[in-house]
Each structure stands twice: as structure tokens, then as C-alpha cells.
Design a protein that fits this description.
Alpha-D-Glucose-1,6-Bisphosphate, Chain A, domain 4; elongated; 177 residues; 37% helix; alpha+beta
Length: 177
């Protein structure tokens, strides 16, 4: 089974990578995440992380959880997971970042489930399409909002600093005259 989600974020690759790997902040940033906790390691270097989210089905919120081994590759700006516990045990996940412009990056999430446990093979299509794909899409859209807001705030701060520098240069010119 295979799912693919993608979004373009109008931010730097560093900002997008920061949000992609900092999973311990997801519950405060993403309303569908209930909790994340590292059993070992951290978002900086990877480790074993338990995640819990909701998959909304109006009017219900279906609770889901899984435990993954997380690997962070800073050079390639890739985050990989291998689900080791939960319904999606043995699922492999890869977050990829690809710069597409000066301040834009394509972020994709690929889920591969080569060998679902025997009892789940019949339901794997439903699990992947109705749960995994939907939660990944909400995650990308939510992180996109936060990353783009951060990028805008950085740009506004830089513009203000430039205005202050320009005012200082103009004041020096007046003093020299």
C-alpha cells in the first residue's frame, strides 16, 4: 500500500525542515494531534516517538496512535519513520523537501506499507486512504500555515530593520551637510 501527500510551502527549506522534524510541538500546532512523546531520543537526532492523533469523521473524532523509529538526515533534509507499534506496524514513512524557488519548498510525505500484518491486509486500503492519507494531509496543511506565518514575520522584521538602517544613514547625511 502506498500514499502520497504534497504541499508547497512559501518559506525557506530550513523553516520547513524545522517544522517537519519538531514533532514534539505538533500537538500545540496541529489540532488533530493529541500527543507526541519521545521514548528515546529527540527531534534533533531522531529516536523512538509515540504519536497520537484524531481522524475526524463528522461528528466523531476517531483516535489513532502509533510508535515509530524516527531518523533525521540533516544533510538531505529528510525525516524517515518506521512504524514499530500500532495498527500500521511495519509502515515506512519519508518526508522529503525539495526547493522549488528562492523561498518556496515542496514538502512531500510518502507512506509505504509493504507487508501489513496478516489480519490487516483486507483493511489496508481503507486504513491508508481514509486514515493515513487524511491525517498526513491535515498535518501538511497545518504545518504550511505555521511555516508561512513564521516566514512572513521574519520578512517583516527584516524590512523594519532595513528601515531603521536607512533612517540612520539619512540622519548621518544630514549631520555631514
Amino acid at each position: 500500500m502506498y500514499t502520497y501527500n504534497e504541499v508547497t510551502m512559501n518559506c525557506s527549506p530550513e523553516t520547513a525542515f524545522h517544522y517537519a522534524r519538531e514533532v514534539e510541538r505538533w500537538p500545540e500546532l496541529l489540532p488533530h494531534y493529541r500527543r507526541t512523546s519521545f521514548q528515546q531520543g529527540s527531534s534533533d537526532r531522531g529516536g523512538t516517538v509515540e504519536m497520537a492523533a484524531y481522524r475526524p469523521f463528522k461528528p466523531l473524532k476517531w483516535p489513532v496512535w502509533w510508535t515509530s523509529d524516527m531518523e533525521v538526515d540533516e544533510v538531505k533534509q529528510v525525516v524517515r519513520y518506521k512504524h514499530i507499534k500500532g495498527v500500521t506496524r511495519n509502515m515506512e514513512v519519508e518526508w522529503r523537501l525539495e526547493p522549488v524557488a528562492e523561498d518556496a519548498v515542496k514538502v512531500s510525505i510518502i507512506h509505504r506499507w509493504y507487508s501489513p500484518p496478516f489480519g490487516r491486509r483486507l483493511l489496508a486500503g481503507i486504513i491508508c486512504n481514509k486514515f493515513v492519507h487524511a491525517i498526513a494531509d491535515r498535518t501538511l496543511q497545518g504545518l504550511k500555515q505555521h511555516a508561512e506565518l513564521e516566514q512572513l514575520e521574519k520578512q517583516e522584521q527584516q524590512e523594519k530593520q532595513e528601515q531603521v538602517r536607512q533612517a540612520g544613514r539619512e540622519a548621518l547625511q544630514v549631520i555631514r551637510v
